[in-house]
Amino acid sequence: MNSEVYAQTRMVLRPMSTPPFPAGFWARSSGWRQAGADYCSRRKPGAPYLELMWTVEGAGILHVDGAEYQVEKDMVFFLLPERFRYYRTASTAWHFRWLTMDGPAIISFFYSLQISPEPRRVGPCPEDDFESLLMLLSEPSQRAQRLATATAFKILLCASAPTSTGNGQNEGDSNPLIATAVQEIERGFREFGFDVNELARRLGKERTSLSRHFKTVMGVTPSAYIARKRFQLATRLLSLTSLQIKEIARQCGFLDADYFSRWFKQRSGVSPGEFRFQLFDT
Amino acid sequence: MNSEVYAQTRMVLRPMSTPPFPAGFWARSSGWRQAGADYCSRRKPGAPYLELMWTVEGAGILHVDGAEYQVEKDMVFFLLPERFRYYRTASTAWHFRWLTMDGPAIISFFYSLQISPEPRRVGPCPEDDFESLLMLLSEPSQRAQRLATATAFKILLCASAPTSTGNGQNEGDSNPLIATAVQEIERGFREFGFDVNELARRLGKERTSLSRHFKTVMGVTPSAYIARKRFQLATRLLSLTSLQIKEIARQCGFLDADYFSRWFKQRSGVSPGEFRFQLFDT
Predict the structure, then answer these.
(1) A31 burial level (CB within 10 Å; 0-12, 13-18, 19+)
(2) Least confident of A132-141, B34-43, B50-59, B184-193
(3) Staple A20 to which of A94, A145, A167, B21, CB 3.0 to 4.6 Å?
(4) Which distant-in-sequence residues (6+ apart) come within 8 Å of A137 by Cβ?
(5) Helix or strand (DSSP H, E) at A70
(6) Are the Cβ atoms of B227 and A6 closer than 8 angstroms?
(7) Interchain CB distance below 8 Å, B105 and A112
(8) pLDDT of A183-207, one tens digit each?
(9) Residue A242 touches partner B, C-beta closer than 8 Å
């Protein structure tokens, strides 16, 4: 073991014997590795924590329960306690970052995310968040350990986003068609009759494939996206103006104020009038 | 209702009918209010979410199940689904920020934090995080909703920190004695025999009251803080150097390498040698 080897990995671990503060789960450790061609690692079943690995550059091979997966840049996979895993560098180099989280509620929270633990393409590794996590984990104060847990949680939620289309980002910014679709929605959602058919027409695209593509990149259908824009505008107008409900309905693209009120209540649990009353019940 | 009233509150709500992505809990809404003397609000039991309220300036009165609490600057309280609450401005003004989180796992996660929902002093309201939350909640993309949930989770963990000593911060920075104690630990933890007695001696303070004070401000006892500094140094030396275990023990303040190994294993689950082997099992 020479010092060159040591500069290729880094790890910070919270002492297991002392949960840092009362909670259902915590950040436990994090690190990174610039692995060379001869790197391989095993994990026996039974380690009582969730592990997340995010590839920054290069490629690895993951073996799990007899299956073999190629792991590339922008891909994430998870190691769960009950399975035996084995992984190694695929060709000449594999640079990845990882974190572990433990606590009685972490595994059930992972399952609530409804994603596969196998390698999935989600987008570039959030290296700044991983760097903050390393720094926070190495500081013993309870405040730092709380922030470490919040940072690990943020990385976990980013890592469980819908599989990206492989263009290096999982939002519209980097996808010209979807970026244009989002702009078109921003421009049009206040108009009566603006819907996914109209959106497809304006973009000169076929509705079904546009919807599917939009959902893959944005995580929501264009219809749901338009509805949310209208709902947010409605709550904003109800909070910030004294406009009548009928006028607010119109500004959100609804000609029929009663239909608007039913639509709003379905989403918020209360009618537009009750929503405003609750906000201003002085 | 005039426009002046409207400028004194702001609220962003995610539509209830559509969970933004699969998870155990989500950010649901957030807002702030500059409440005047005549402000009061009720909440009936049964609303299926957790609400967090953080006072920025001024004061309010919270009535819950027959009890009455004064709520001041830097104090947080929580509203749980099952209880009837009523709150109002205490004197002339009450400025607070709030958020709600929903989802099947949010209430059990709140209980895992082992804090009282009643008003507690925790430190200044993290207004930047609340502003980010407002912005993220108003954006319909799944990515924004994931980041909104991570931000709400961060605020929740900060709000559940141990009650501060009332000096406006819950870390050592603002407390001269504890800041000096932390510096003394940074200087001394590598030395053999450095412990809480030695720390108290160097500061010219009585050990028991120093420990209690340190725990209140930092959330951990000075002994645990010293042990964590030593543990972090040990993991760093094991990862980044090829020093012998005996030498690492010495640099962490242990004269007896066997004792160090048992101490390390108790905390990490593995011996120092195994820890290094796992890190470098190429």
Answers:
(1) buried
(2) B34-43
(3) A145
(4) A12, A13, A14, A27, A29, A30, A144, A145, A148
(5) strand A67-72
(6) no
(7) yes
(8) 999 999 999 999 999 999 999 999 9
(9) yes
- Determine, for residues B21 and A219 on separate chains, whether the beta-carbon distance falls below 8 Å: yes
Give pLDDT tens digits for B121-170.
999 999 999 999 999 998 888 889 999 999 999 999 999 988 765 444 44
Collect all residues with Cβ–Cβ distance below 8 Å to B22 and sequence separation of at least 6.
A112, A113, A114, A115
- ipTM for the complex? 0.80
- Domain at B3-159, CATH class: mainly beta
Using CA atoms, how far apart are residues A234 and A227, in angstroms rounded to an integer? 10
Say if residue A35 is exposed, middle or buried (CB neighbours under 10 Å; 0-12, 13-18, 19+). Answer: buried
**What is the C-alpha to C-alpha distance for residues A55 and A123, in angstroms, rounded to an integer?**
10
**Residue A59: HSE in the Cβ half-sphere, 13 Å Cα cutoff:** 9
Is A134 within 8 Å of A10 (Cβ atoms)?
A: yes
Q: What are phi and psi of B45, to 5 degrees?
A: -65, 155
- Going by C-alpha positions, the residue among A2, A145, A144, A121 that lies closest to residue A54 is A121
Closest CA to B177 of B189, B167, B162, B191: B167
